[in-house]
Amino acid sequence: MRIVLVDDHRVVARSLKAFLESFDGLQVVGMAASGEELLEKLDEWQPEIIVQDLLLPGGIDGVETTRRVLRRQPGARVIVLTASTDEARMMGALRAGACGYVRKDAEPETLLAAVRAVARGKQFYDVPPVAGAEEDLTPREKEVLRRVALGRSNKEIADELGVADETVKTHVTHVLSKLMADNRAQAVVQALKRGLVSLDELE
Length: 203
Prior knowledge:
Shape: elongated
Strand order of the largest sheet: 2-1-3-4-5-6
Number of domains: 2
Radius of gyration: 18 Å
Number of strands: 6
Oligomer: single chain
């Protein structure tokens, strides 16, 4: 499995390389410090999996890098590894085609699990499931969550469902509370994990 690491923190990248290569079948074929460097070496490296930070130096961020990489190599699988809690950036990466999301404060084994999952064609989101939360969501709350995942604003959701803005705001608050999510992006990841929305729909 040919892996490329994209992170401007060399210590992080080298540590990840050593960790991943300690397992059979995983080979780090390149390390880039920016999106530009990755795109420059993409044809040479031919990675199957790209593990990249979202906050990258230079002119293009992790979201745009993901978009450009997948335009050139549609078969590559991108795992976002980030300390950022910026929900717009995270959603942007998923919409650009990233199929994995791992927090930088996660255990190394979580990244390994993500690499193995996406290698098998699966998606991997490092957000712990909330026991019983799906059953607790009402059908209307699931509809609202699905529309939140698709990037709709409260007003757009209200228009689509034919209800007042305040009603949608209340539903969103209940959904976040039940899923123990701090923001809409975390709720979206839960929606993805629960199969309420697919990555194809997010693109």
